[in-house]
Amino acid sequence: MIFSRKKAKDINKLIKKAPVFIPTIERGLNDEQINSRIEDGLVNKTEKTVTKSYFEIIFKNVFSILNIILFAIAITMIVFKQYKNLLFLVILSVNIAISLVQDIKARRLVDKLSLISNPRATVVRNAKESAVPFNEIVLSDIIVLKAGNTIPCDGVVVHGEISVNESLLSGENNDVKKFVKSKVYAESVVTSGIAHIRVEKVGKANYVATLQEKAKSFSRPKSEILTSLSSFIKIISIAAVAIGISEIATYLFLKQPVDEAVKSMTSSVVAMIPIGMYLMTSITLTVGVILLARKRILVRELYSIEMLARVNVLCVDKTGTLTDGKMKVDCLIPFPGHNNIELEDLIAGILSTTKDDNLTAKALKEKFSPRTILGPVTAIPFNSARKYSAVSYQGISYVMGAFGFFDITNEDDVNKEVKKYEALGRRVLVLAKGRGNIYENKLPGRLTAIGLIALEENLKPDAIKNIEWFKNNDVSIRIISGDSLLSLQNIAKRVGVEGYEKAISLEDLSDEEVKEAAHKHCIFARVSPDQKKIIIEELRKNNCVAMVGDGVNDLLALKSADCSIAMASGSDAAKAVSHLVSLDSNFSSLPNVVEQGRRVINNLQRVSSIFLVKTIFAITLSTVFLVLSWFDHDIRYPFAAPNLYIWELITIGAAPFFVALEPNKDRIKGKFMVNVVRESVPAAFMQLLLCGIMFVATTISSKYFPRTSSISMAVILITVMSLVIFLKVCMPLNKFRGTVVIVATIFVAGLLLGDYYLATKFGHEFFDISFSSINTATLLLGLISFIAAMPVYFLVSYALNKLLVKLRNRKNNEQARNN
């Protein structure tokens, strides 16, 4: 923060000393003035980045707390010349290298997409309007602002009038009218009107830069995986360090040889640490980012992919998702006493005066060229809250907007006509007139409708297919729109959205009534921006909710959703607050987005449980042998680091890596860590049981079960059992997972047989398994134990699973009763 404040202070000094340029709105700055500003450093440079720097990527992947512990262990092994035990460094190095490559690849892809999606402002320079990136705007630039634009810099209005929503700065969702000489601030959003502003602040000098957390437009998703992994890694780190220090202290106190103490300590600590678990998570998420980038989806936060996986409710606006956002005028309907020519002139005059530029206004402009008919007294530009625009001409006011949002004297007759066209799926605007001028943004008291405008929307060709995909994949759709009830029902019916017959209009409903409606209906018409937010917040109480939006009216809903997705063709503000941006503005890409999220989380749950098995096993075993060594000085941790290398290399390292990248469309159920523990605890218990049987046998009769023989048999048992665990985690098997299991089995068998060959041929074992010491009694006990353990493992897993499901259902029922 000191750095930021110093920067802001420095640039404010530069602004005060800078030569004063007062460009006109017609000419703007010239090249000489622009170059002068650039040389003086008065450019709107910011330090916002979507991706991590290369330094951050390297630091995160190389210097995690677990890696630091492992590096310390490696140095210790080198000092005590335990070179054979350093194989884990190869595994660690490969994990780090893969993660670095994927992270850097993802960064480059996302950076390229970010360049495409970077917001631009319309700036007047050298008497021409041009689109300039926000970070290339200079002090004194003339910027043209219209509805939907995010204001890039602090400035002053020099021409025109606009309404601005400053909620991203102040937290208050109110439109503020801005006239000539009014101040405007970076990060606020233009909701209506058109104006020219002159830039007065740039970069760190902007007011938004001083607001710290209050000014943040982008909020990071709350990641259960990140929270769970962080807690898990802290616990492992504390346990590993504590047990390692205790082992060294115990062995030194017992006056054991230092090299033996170090060997025992390093072996147990290496076994405790899930090498690559955090990196595997990073890789899996990063691959998701890369695959989405290839689909032209910009992911602004890695862990937002997790939220995609959990989405079971998708909220969309009609425009840009179900329809293509393009409209055309179908017909004009003049009422008695009026004609088409009169209505066309009136529409052209309103468009010319209000400078509206939303989708509806663009369709009207194509049909009716904006032109000034009479000099207006005042005007009200359109915004999504009031849903109309109006102008006053010499004592008479004209209004154009949605039916029901302003009072008219012939309401009953108009209502019949409006419903007739809305039933055909048309969007209908009402034209009305009345005596009196607009005063303080209020319409005159008595208005009479003089005609209707019917607009036709184009249904997206893939809308039906996309809605069907979501229905078949356990994602329910909510349509939240400002359109009329009948037209929305018509569109929802055509695309196959369930519940269209129970659609509801939220017009004039209280906040409490909106909250109640959110749980009972799927189609919401006449929704204001505040009501959209209320619906999202209510749905989030029992669901994971994604919101797709593209307009200023979607901002509050996007910020409230668990995962927000914006269309690149939409407003700058919508893109600024969203976790993901569809650069093709294509709703049909959303199934791919949800699929990637599910693939990532489902597969992460599978592989994380495999990592956790060894960690639980090693911590428990190390603790037991540490305590036992206090009572019997000859007892020490039984395994050397190489004993677990096959487990580490194949069934924890290579095989899960491929499973983690497998397509998986299943909906996520339950909590991440609960699901991981459900798989890992029974598996770790069985590994401990197998080892326990062999070690107890040695304690009972070292004659029939020598210590070396029991340890070697235990290593073989837990290695083979790790394959069974991997098989269990991969169930139900499909062709891909079945192939991975078979290949893993071949490699495990090959490594064990290869080590046996080395032992018998050359008298040297790479994995420190003393095959020659395994006698008949030990072999038979191991086989019987393994055969008996198999059904026990599956029964324990089944029982634990049933228990957790029962507890989860009870909790869900309690929550449902409370709600």
Number of helices: 25
Distance between the termini: 43 Å
Biggest sheet: strand arrangement: 8-21-20-19-9-16-18-17
User: What would you report as the Rg, rounded to the nearest angstrom?
Assistant: 34 Å
- Describe the global form: elongated
Q: Could you name the ranges where pLDDT drops below 50 across 5 or more consecutive residues? A: 1-7, 211-218
What does the main sheet amount to? 8 strands, mixed
How many beta-strand segments?
Answer: 21
> What's the overall average pLDDT, rounded?
83
Tell me what portion of residues adopts beta-strand conformation: 15-25%
Q: Give the helix/strand class.
A: alpha/beta
Based on the structure, what is the oligomeric state of the protein chains? single chain
Helix % is 40-55%
Descriptive account of the structure:
- With 819 residues, the protein is α/β, with parallel strands linked by helices.
- Helices cover 52% and strands 15% of the residues.
- An 8-stranded mixed sheet has the order 8-21-20-19-9-16-18-17, with helices on both faces.
- Helix 16 (511-518) links the parallel strand 17 and strand 18 (523-525).
- The longest helix is centred in the last third of the chain and has 43 residues, at 776-818.
- 48% of the residues are buried.
- Mean pLDDT is 83; it is low at 1-7 and 211-218.
